[in-house]
Design a protein that fits this description.
Number of strands: 14
CATH class of the largest domain: Alpha Beta
CATH architecture of the largest domain: Alpha-Beta Complex
Oligomer: single chain
Structural class: alpha+beta
Distance between the termini: 40 Å
Order of helices and strands: EEEHEEEEHEHHHEEEEEE
Radius of gyration: 18 Å
Shape: globular
Helix content: 10-25%
Number of helices: 5
CATH topology of the largest domain: Cathepsin B, Chain A
Length: 221
């Protein structure tokens, strides 16, 4: 695994992360078709992770392509680092799903507590689907502290749970949404439902200060 500071560049109106080393020297394969698993971090917080085909720019130099949704997430952070692993092929959480927005998994929302720290995202998916946290871990391809917004959204898509975009500027919350909250230097996720916060760590709470909510994703059920 390679690690480096995240440097964004703009080329022909598209956003990329500059890879500061020669990829061909790592693979010993002079090919313009290269795939990688990318993890973008702020300190120790996993901000975003995804797989992608690298964008070649000649003689072993490549960019990591950043789409509009990913850029909307990472632009909120001042200093980011990148963990980089080359892979043989691309994988996707929501491949071969038996569900869709028209045929979603349907469950009554009930409170679920996370078993230990680092499973707040998994617990929220469990609340929305009725699946066990262990089953959600397998579907999300993530254990404790390995969740990310990209994995969260892909897993919602797998279960056919209709959702909106990530919203950063707001004065109020929609009826059902996943909230990214601030606890000290850490991010922590909870589900807002029936005018209460279903917090996987602290139980069902009546209120969280709006200034402590970084963003939300609306859930349409």
């Amino acid at each position: 695994m390679e690690s480096f500071l995240c440097t964004l560049v703009k080329v022909n109106d598209k956003i990329y992360i500059d890879i500061p080393f020669n990829v061909w020297h790592i693979t010993n394969k002079k090919s313009n078709t290269q795939f990688a698993k990318i993890v973008i971090l702020s300190d120790t917080i996993n901000v975003l992770d995804f797989e992608c085909r690298l964008a070649p720019r000649g003689e072993g130099k490549f960019y990591i392509p950043i789409g509009p949704k990913a850029y909307a997430i990472i632009k909120e952070y001042k200093k980011l680092s990148v963990e980089f692993d080359l892979i043989d092929k691309l994988h996707s959480i929501n491949n071969d799903s038996p569900y869709s927005v028209e045929n979603p998994i349907r469950r009554k929302i009930e409170y679920v507590s996370q078993p230990t720290k680092g499973y707040c995202m998994h617990a929220i998916i469990s609340m929305l689907t009725g699946e066990s946290i262990e089953a959600v871990c397998e579907r999300m391809q993530a254990r404790a502290f390995q969740g990310s917004l990209s994995k969260l959204i892909e897993t919602l898509d797998y279960y056919g749970i209709a959702h909106g975009k990530i919203i950063y500027k707001f004065d109020s919350l929609p009826p059902i949404c996943i909230c990214n909250t601030r606890i000290g230097r850490r991010n922590h996720y909870c589900l807002y439902y029936q005018k209460k916060f279903y917090d996987p760590t602290y139980g069902i709470k009546k209120d969280i200060p709006i200034d402590d909510i970084i963003s939300y994703i609306e859930i349409n059920m």
